[in-house]
Specification:
The complex is a heterodimer.
Chain A: H1 2-59, E1 79-85, H2 95-109, E2 114-120, H3 122-130, E3 135-139, H4 149-164, E4 170-178, E5 184-192, E6 208-209, H5 213-287
Parallel strand pairs in A: 1-2, 1-4, 2-3
Antiparallel strand pairs in A: 4-5
Helix pairs in contact in A: 1-5, 2-3, 4-5
Chain B: E1 5-11, E2 14-21, E3 23-28, E4 31-35, E5 42-55, E6 58-72, E7 75-80, E8 83-85, H1 91-107, H2 114-133
Classes of the chains: A alpha/beta, B alpha+beta.
Chain lengths: 288, 137
């Protein structure tokens, strides 16, 4: 019976796939935990940084030369750069397509602007490479190992340089944010020029400056960009593992359903053939 | 003045401390700065050096690699580029670095980037000093 053999072969192959998907799910769950810890560990620095920046900016007089700092000054937004953070690998549900779709829509909504992409992650790069969108810089395979601050620093200094040299007038950050193990949301926000959080003027503290505020900002503002890029990357990594975990969980369940269905079918076919043989034997005996 | 200081030290990867302390000494831009509760508000860059603080009669120390600090009457917040608890310091590695750099500086080879070497040396020395002064228990 070739039909039976075929069925058995299919069941075996689905079982193999199921084993792979459930292993991937387990791996992602472990990686997610670690990624999550890193996101949480990086939060205090980022929070302190925006606090400090806000409370210093708020007490400066409005005509302070600090506001003329080149990383704070707005220009007419003609050339737009988007730092798009995706994953290096697929098999993680809508993770990569979500950012890709957002960027595609942004591109089609702003046909009059000159938009370039800077891609972190292989998937995003490949997608827009095929679509012939201009990608000025790309970083792939960063996610193979845990993200280090130094890497974010390199990317950030690259972005700041292109902003300072007026290659771009505004830089946006586009990435997945880790909401929970089940939910990831796409975040799109301006990175440069920096928009300081609106602080409370009445709570302003009169600081003593050990050095001119301008000098201080020379170190503070680049740090602010770096930590933002770093956090975005960490968030993206955590979201990627969460998305993959969910996707692989669904795949494992689907494979289970398929195996059940195929097994039922196999048993029916086998039973039918046994019944048929029995009828043949019985009717052969009767004929005697 | 009685009261406590809330000391927070964070590097991009983690937060090292967020605790109530009695006194802080930090390597500010213009030299070491002692902070007691009720200090006037101040912001400054942080140099490579040792940050130490006291809780009761317990003194702890950590090595900082530059950054910024903000002082408020009841808070000290330090955003360091890199920081290490004294007890975490790998003494063998740091003293080897120190000796190597000192050797290079002594030989006065032209190709040596002196500013860079000095910074490396300062880091190693700060870490060793932090280790010597950190009394965890």
């Amino acid at each position: 019976m070739p039909n039976l053999i075929d069925l058995r072969r299919r069941i075996r192959s689905v079982k193999n796939t199921q084993q792979i998907t459930s292993a991937m799910k387990m791996v992602s769950a472990a990686k997610l935990r670690r990624a999550q810890d890193r996101v949480i560990a990086a939060r205090p620095y980022a929070a302190l940084m925006s606090d400090m920046l806000g409370s210093i900016l708020v007490q400066l007089p409005d005509d302070s030369s600090v506001f003329e700092h080149e990383l704070l000054r707005r220009r007419e937004e003609k050339r737009i750069a988007i730092l798009l953070i995706s994953a290096d690998k697929g098999l993680c549900g809508a993770f990569n397509s979500n950012v890709a779709r957002f960027a595609t829509r942004f591109l089609s909504e702003n046909p009059d602007k000159e938009i370039t992409l800077q891609c972190v992650g292989r998937r995003g790069r490949d997608f827009f490479h095929r679509k012939r969108v201009s990608i000025t810089r790309e970083w792939v395979n960063l996610f193979a190992r845990p993200i280090e601050f130094a890497q974010a620093k390199l990317i950030a200094s690259d972005l700041m340089q292109s902003f300072r040299e007026k290659e771009t007038d505004v830089i946006y950050l586009l990435h997945n944010e880790f909401k929970s193990a089940l939910a990831q949301t796409v975040v799109f926000r301006r990175l440069l020029p920096i928009q300081p959080a609106e602080g409370d003027k009445s709570a302003a503290v009169d600081y003593i400056y050990e050095q001119p505020p301008e000098d201080l900002f020379e170190t503070l503002l680049p740090r602010y960009i770096e930590i933002n890029v770093y956090q975005a990357m960490l968030e993206s990594v955590a979201a990627e593992h969460a998305a993959r975990m969910t996707a692989m969980d669904a795949a494992t369940r689907n494979a289970g359903e398929m195996i059940d269905k195929l097994t039922l079918h196999l048993n029916r076919v086998r039973q039918a053939s046994i019944t048929k043989e029995l009828i043949e034997v019985v009717s052969g005996a009767e004929a005697l | 003045m009685a009261g406590k200081l809330n000391l927070e030290v964070a590097v991009p990867e983690r937060q090292l401390i967020n605790e109530e302390v009695d006194e802080v000494q930090a390597p500010a831009a213009t030299g070491y700065l002692g902070v007691l509760p009720g200090h006037a508000p101040l912001v400054s860059e942080v140099q490579v050096g040792v940050l130490s603080f006291r809780v009761g009669d317990k003194i702890r120390a950590m090595a900082l690699d530059g950054g910024v600090m903000e002082v408020l009457p009841a808070h000290v917040r330090v955003l360091a580029d890199e920081a290490q608890w004294g007890e975490e310091v790998d003494i063998d590695k740091e003293s080897r670095t120190r000796d190597e750099v000192q050797e290079r500086l002594r030989e006065r080879i032209e190709s040596v980037d002196f500013d860079r070497e000095r910074l490396v040396l300062a880091r190693a020395q700060a870490r060793l000093e932090a280790h010597a002064r950190d009394r965890a228990s």
